[in-house]
């Protein structure tokens, strides 16, 4: 790798750590500052932070890889996600911002659920925290796999026989930088770095397809090349069945239950900022998703035209960055990929840490723990979750999209119906909340274990979020209707 590329990456790492130090000085004196940035996020920061923490390495690795391999039909995942994100901003964001502050100034999603349903407070906090820690460890591992792939592809042979190009070295370096600014600066550091990372990501996703198109001879040449590969490569319906369509677009259901995304809604500085943040966030997402689709499509054309071999489709972004750009720009593009990976990892680590500290440590071990103690325990928990994720990510053959799909479905099914109904339905009970939480997570785990997401009843698989979300929603409604809602619960919505 050229020295210019290393300089760009070095500057990026220094910027992330510098933001962490700034946030440490501004907002880590108490748990509200460390876990929610004091609820003072600017709408632009909240919007891009939600978007960057959402998209992760999936946006620059998983989605382009799927499009590279199967064609435009894979774009339905992005379309479903866009619709789900928009609904999330409309339904969840304003209500969650208002209710979490009003109901006991909750700092975590489990704490909000406990305040909303006090008769099942302990059960909800414990079960929700367990689900968050388990699924986020897997989700974090997906990001680390992306970091490992980046270093294997881009740094091979750079340091001779020192092993610096090894997959695990990439994982440790990625985790190390994330830990540096997350442990030091907490939520504000994570949100500010997400904002910067979101800007870098969207510029890279606009730049790369345009450069590839110019290098390939324009749109007509790309289209002709891809039609030579498969006449239906650019068709949105090629080989698409009803179940396949449903499995793709229902990714959007997962947004309602992603703690690392919706926690940004809790931290926006005031309720009136939500529409502004929504407009910024959805504009960013539209450009980013279209760019990722473009990378996969034009990347396949470039590989075909130049007779290249790409063993792992999920590394198409890295291949194009290394072949087409000046080393300084290559460093910027690789920083964009690292930004996508690190923004999500840092958010997941912090949310997992907040659940461990607020919903386990403070709840069971040290009810009278001081603010400084809670902040320090949170930092330790960030490191522990990261180590567990590193252990899971050790397999270099892991597929980023597959790991993300499983974790996304787990959160979407367990928390999605629960959050939506808790915010909007007065009749919901604490028992119903517990039933939905357990049912959603259990159905997803069972569905994956039986392999029904790959093949169901001899046919094609069904994405696990569909049965999980439906079962959780039904369980909440059925159990709630059998009980009696408390008056203080009804007043919450």
From TrEMBL:
The chain crosses the membrane at residues 6-25, 75-93, 122-147, 167-188, 195-214, 234-256, 276-303, 315-341, 374-394, 400-423, 430-450, 462-485. This is Sodium/proline symporter. It is found in: Cell inner membrane; Cell membrane. Pfam families: SSF (PF00474). Keywords: Amino-acid transport, Cell inner membrane, Cell membrane, Ion transport, Membrane, Sodium, Sodium transport, Symport, Transmembrane, Transmembrane helix, Transport. One of its GO terms (biological process) is proline transport. The lineage of its organism: Bacteria, Pseudomonadati, Pseudomonadota, Alphaproteobacteria, Sphingomonadales. GO terms for molecular function: L-proline transmembrane transporter activity; proline:sodium symporter activity; sodium ion binding. Gene3D superfamilies: Sodium/glucose cotransporter. Belongs to the sodium:solute symporter (SSF) (TC 2.A.21) family. The gene is putP. Catalyzes the sodium-dependent uptake of extracellular L-proline. The keyword Membrane applies. It is a multi-pass membrane protein. It catalyses: L-proline(in) + Na(+)(in) = L-proline(out) + Na(+)(out). GO terms for cellular component: plasma membrane. Signal peptide: none annotated. It comes from Allopontixanthobacter confluentis. PROSITE patterns: NA_SOLUT_SYMP_2, NA_SOLUT_SYMP_3. Coiled coil: none annotated.
